[in-house]
C-alpha cells in the first residue's frame, strides 16, 4: 500500500490496519483510463509563457503559500497566482490538474504559466472571476442558492469524473458572479488524482469543512470528502445555529458527533476499523440526541425547503459509502427548478466525457471497470 504526500505520489508508507480498505463506488478506475502512463508529477514538464505581457493591478487574495493578483493582458482581465516558498513539484501538480480541467464547466480555467527570472518565482495565470464568501451566499434567494449549489455539484461531478478530488471545498474557494449567477470552482492547490487502494494524507483542508474520514484519519478516502463539504456549505448558510470556530481536530470530531449523533459516528469508526484515542472517545457526547429538529427550527425562513433539507441530510452522512455522489446529488428533486440553461451545460459535458472515456479505453486496451 502507498500513501500520497502533499507533493507527489506515490511514496512508500507503512501499512495501516483498517478493517475495510474502501474503494470509491463511483469513478473508481477512471484515472487508469485518462492517465494510463501517469507515474509522478515530477515527470510533468512546465513550459513558460511571456511574463511581460501581463500588467499587475492589485492584490485580490492571499494565503500562506501564494498571493493572487488581478492583472491585464491588453484589455482582458486575468488572475495571477504567485507562489511563495513552494516546492516546484507542488506547482506541477496544480498545473497538471488545471490543464486536465480545460474546457470543463464550472471549473476555473488556466491560461498560462509564467516565471519571473529575477525572483525565480513561478506563477499560474487563470481567468479572472469574482470571488465569493459565506456572507454573499447568505443574502441569496432560495432559487439563486439552488442554482449556486447545482453548479458547485456539477463542477465537482466534472472533477470526479476526471479522477480528481478537490479536497478544499469551501465558500472562499468558489468563485461566483451574483449578477450572471455563474460559478467556478477555484484554488485546486490541494486537488489530487484518485487511484483506488491508495492512501492519501488526511491533514489537509480547512477544519470546518473536513469530512469524518479526514477528521478521524481514514487514509483510503475518495471523492466523497468533497460531497461532505457541500453538505456543510448547505448547513452553514441555511441554519443559523452553533456557528463556532473550531481550532483542533478533536473539537471537530466532537462537533460532528453532536451533529450526526455519536452512534452514527461510532458505527462508521467501528465499520472501518479506525483507531481513536480514549481521550477523544470520552470527550464525545454520551447521549444519542437527534439534533436535526433543532437545526430545522433554527433554519432561516427563506431557506426552509423540504427537498433541500433532504439533500443536506443525504450529504451529511458519516459513512462515505452511503453519502450521495455528485451524479446522484445532481438528480435530487431539489434541483428540479434549476433553469434549463444551467442544466444544458451539464448534459453536453456528460456526453462528451462518456465518448472520451470510451475512446481512451479502446486506445489503451484496458478492460472497462466501474467508471
UniProtKB/TrEMBL annotation:
Its EC number is 2.7.11.1. This is non-specific serine/threonine protein kinase. Signal peptide: none annotated. Belongs to the protein kinase superfamily. One of its GO terms (biological process) is DNA damage response. It catalyses: L-seryl-[protein] + ATP = O-phospho-L-seryl-[protein] + ADP + H(+); L-threonyl-[protein] + ATP = O-phospho-L-threonyl-[protein] + ADP + H(+). Gene3D superfamilies: Phosphorylase Kinase, domain 1, Transferase(Phosphotransferase) domain 1.
